[in-house]
Amino acid sequence: MTAVGIDAIEIRTGKLRLDLPNTFAPVKGEDPGKYTKGIGIQYSSLPDVYEDIVTMGANAAKRLMDRKGLTPEDIGRIDVATESAFDNSKPVSTYIAGCLESVYDGDFHHANKGERKFACLAGTQSIDDAYNWIRAGRNRGRAALVIATDTALYERGDPGEATQGAGAVAMLIDEDPDIVALSTEQGYGSADETDFLKPNQQFPSVDGQRSIQVYLARMREALEDYESVAGETHPDDFVYFPFHTPYPGMVRKAALLGYRHITRDTEIEDALADDIGMQPREGDYADREDYEDAIRAYMDELKETRRYQEWYEQAIEPTVDVSGQVGNWYTGSVHVARLSALRAAAERGADLAGEKLLVGSYGSGAQAEIHSETVRDGWREAIDAVDVESQLDARYDLDFEEYELVHDAHNHEKDVDIEEFTQPDGEFVFTGWGRMNERRYEYVE
Ligand code: HMG
Question: Would the CB of 246 count as within 6 Å of ligand 1?
């Protein structure tokens, strides 16, 4: 069976940044340690006034197409995943296709376009759709362009403000891919939850503490479901575990739970037993509460062991590097985690071809999905070509007043007209509204 997966990746960050420990925390009267040690985000990426989900998505896609030498003829499908859409009917993918058609010869009239919604999970679901379309033999030799793009803004004063971000990830899904091939095995954990939602409103309603518990519960279900088709997982089976990263602190919690799960009944549990005992088994406790207390106590000890810490440093830490520099990109977040890990591996000169990743995606509301990916021979060159550093370094540093202004400028309820902080340079920009209230864009050389 021909491998299908991710052949190329590009990201586009919002061009502004807010330094959370040094600019945001002091005004909020918070200890910077909340951001450097707890949440784990140094900078939130934010969009300049002429940026939005369309410009970021189109700019990422254009760079990907230019780098791969693609024309519209080569793309048979454009799927956009977002939870920041501004239209309930016309999909963002049509706007992005329109932008791209303004700079390439030819058009995307032959391409199937859509928009996927399931909170942050939709990026992975769009990859799934592309995978299935190719596997079904309906692609006529063409590749799919999947774009995950979001402006993850919260109401000012909401606890979620500490995790904001804005950016897009464009991915080319194709046969015989250069970066990773996807497994056919998948696991799901899905339930009707009210933890984070946007009922026809721009900024989310969030029950923050509950959202953390729901994330962990659904991921656990997804892992068990994955194991039911793929067999038991073991830490040594996977070189990295890229997970949806609303903020690195969340992944720290998920990783500890995951490690306990995948080391149960293994030689690792036995080896750790001398120091911290065996894992609690439910049958040994009179009631659920005692069992849960015992698990918490076990995990407190587990996270202090050298074995766990070494695994975390190698298999998890590299996945959250970039996220700590940009914040939550919602639908793009797990794809940033994968990219972050592969970049770290490329930097240390690792030979990853044939190694596996266990990828955990999540969307509030809520659903988790877990699958594995096999790194392909061409991964190194494909990852070296992704422009990350120069974009992150070029961002404009906002002071707190500027941050409030730009947040207001993106607030659909406010009519705030401010000067841009950066100058457009070879990119798509938002130029205003048309006669039917459609958004308008142009390419600025
Ligand atoms: P909060 O109340 O601002 O922060 O809310 P906190 O007081 O809970 O502190 C955060 C962490 O920093 C804690 O770590 C503190 O201990 C630590 P924890 O105990 O949880 O391990 N901390 C410190 N550490 C060192 N030195 C210090 C210090 N101070 C504090 N001085 C919360 C945090 C995440 C709830 C909030 O930001 C929020 O509501 N965020 C939005 C929701 C969210 O991101 N949920 C995550 C799971 S749901 C999800 O991932 C889906 C999502 O991406 C949306 C989608 O799917 O579309 C959000």
Answer: yes
